[in-house]
Amino acid sequence: MNLCKNVKITKVGDYESAGTGAVNSTAVDMQGWDGVLFLTTMHVANSGNYINAAQGDLSNGSDAADLEGTKVVCEYADVAMWLDIYKPIDRYVRVEAVRAGSSTAMGEIWAIQYSGRIMPQDNDTTNTITGKLHISPAEGTA
């Protein structure tokens, strides 16, 4: 099995410079997928800086409601934070980043959807992400 052909990788949030305002990712459409793992970073550790997940039925996220127990606090500076939502009840899921404890910059937010019903996936998206799959590559010049 090749991971890159069995997951969908999407950038759902851009880098955010230092600030204290909330940052919401783009909602991820979970139709045809069982789960999504979100990955991001915050650059200042503080109990008021955290991420959580929200879900709703509208693609624009206007009806998104927080998901109980999904809060992940930024305990260490510049450490990646992840949140995995498996079998959400509503169709659209997003990450909400709260920067209320201390001004902080945030890294890009990535969504990795898994256990999909349509394979294989093409994860090359212009101006977002690119890569290659190699199976049993020989040693030599890259």
Provide a brief overview of the structure:
The protein has 142 residues and is mainly β. The protein is 3% helix and 48% strand. It has a single domain, classed as Galactose-binding domain-like (Jelly Rolls, Sandwich).
How does this model look, in words?
The chain is mainly beta and 142 residues long. The chain has a single domain, classed as Galactose-binding domain-like (Jelly Rolls), CATH 2.60.120. Helix content is 3%, strand content 48%. The protein is built from 1 helix and 12 strands, in the order H-E-E-E-E-E-E-E-E-E-E-E-E. The strands form 3 sheets. Strands 3, 4, 6, 7, 8 and 10 form a 6-stranded antiparallel sheet that branches. Strands 1-12-5-9 form a 4-stranded antiparallel sheet. Strands 2-11 form a two-stranded antiparallel ribbon. A hairpin with an 8-residue loop joins strand 6 and strand 7. It is globular, with a radius of gyration of 16 Å. The two termini are 23 Å apart. The model has no long low-confidence stretch (mean pLDDT 93).
